């Protein structure tokens, strides 16, 4: 299969798609970090409740 050279417009389109993909990846990372922090707090609170003596 022979490769064709990309013209300037095609290169611009590829660059634009790559930039959109980068932005989406950053947004996903932020969401994952928020969820991770939320569940880490939840886990720590659950551990503290299990280790504390029952109230009288």
Tell me briefly what this model is.
With 56 residues, the chain is mostly helical. The chain is 79% helix and 0% strand. The mean pLDDT is 91.
Tell me what you see in this structure.
The chain is mainly α and 56 residues long. It has one helix at 8-51. The protein has a domain at 10-47. 79% of the residues lie in helices and 0% in strands. It is rod-shaped, with a radius of gyration of 24 Å. The termini are far apart.
Distance between the termini: 79 Å
Shape: rod-shaped
Q: How large a portion of the residues is in β-strands, by DSSP E?
A: under 5%
User: With helices defined by DSSP (H or I, 4 residues minimum), what is the helix count?
Assistant: 1
Q: Which structural class do you get from the secondary structure elements? A: mainly alpha
Topology as a string of helices (H) and strands (E): H
Count of distinct strands: 0
> What is the averaged pLDDT score?
91
- Using the CA coordinates, give the radius of gyration: 24 Å
Low-confidence stretches: none
Proportion of residues in helical segments: over 70%
Largest sheet, strands/sense/barrel: none
Keywords summarizing the entry:
single chain, 56 residues, mainly alpha, 1 helix
Topology:
Layout: H1 8-51
């Amino acid at each position: 299969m022979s490769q064709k050279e990309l013209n300037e417009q095609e290169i611009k389109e590829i660059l634009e798609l790559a930039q959109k993909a980068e932005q989406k990846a950053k947004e996903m990372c932020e969401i994952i970090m928020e969820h991770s922090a939320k569940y880490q707090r939840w886990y720590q609170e659950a551990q503290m409740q299990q280790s504390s003596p029952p109230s009288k």
